[in-house]
Design goal:
Layout (H helix, E strand, L loop, with lengths): L1 H7 L2 H16 L4 H24 L14 H19 L7 H17 L7 H16 L1 H9 L1 H10 L5 H19 L1
Length: about 180
């Protein structure tokens, strides 16, 4: 159950869902562009993670050890900035959300020296807070899943309590930044 929950609420899927719902609610004509861009971003990130794991450079496909994460953060940052540009930069209604996600990734990357914040929890809390402003029922549903996802990450041994709490707090703060 813990593994299934962790897979279903993986950051790739959470961000893909958030982007599609946000485009649908805020700028429906941009939906094909948003979907295409997210598919490319997730495809590149997933392919990179899969290759690192299969080659033995990462212990898990999620870069579970802190020393595996800097390259993941760098890739995520490059992809997020590229996605922001793909959407039209500051002219896109989704711009603030993408930039808040970039800030969240930068903060998690900087904190990685001391704590391996849960990106699963950060992405779910971020999406939940943003969706409260965009489509309240979806935001409430995602936020209701935060405790279950925290349990799953702890049960799988991927994080300690302070890492899941820290990830959720970081994601929530970045989400508020996106909608403020």
């Amino acid at each position: 159950m813990a593994r299934a929950l962790s897979l279903v609420l993986h950051p790739f899927g959470v961000f893909m869902g958030l982007a599609l719902v946000a485009a649908w609610r805020l700028d429906p004509p941009s939906l094909p562009r948003v979907a295409t861009g997210m598919a490319v971003v997730v495809g590149i990130a997933w392919g990179f993670a899969w290759r690192r794991w299969r080659s033995g450079r990462w212990s898990t496909v999620d870069a579970s050890r802190p020393q595996e994460r800097p390259v993941l953060y760098l890739l995520a940052l490059v992809l997020a900035i590229g996605y922001w540009r793909w959407l039209g930069g500051g002219a896109s209604p989704l711009s603030g959300g993408v930039l808040a996600a970039v800030a969240m990734l930068c903060a998690a990357g900087l904190a990685n020296r001391w704590i391996k914040l849960s990106l699963h929890l950060a992405s779910l809390a971020f999406a939940g807070i943003v969706l409260l402003a965009v489509w309240r029922p979806a935001g409430c549903a995602l936020l209701a899943l935060v405790p279950a996802l925290a349990w799953s990450r702890l049960a799988l041994g991927r994080h300690r309590l302070e890492e899941v709490v820290g990830g959720a707090l970081l994601g929530g703060a970045a989400g508020w930044m996106a909608v403020a």
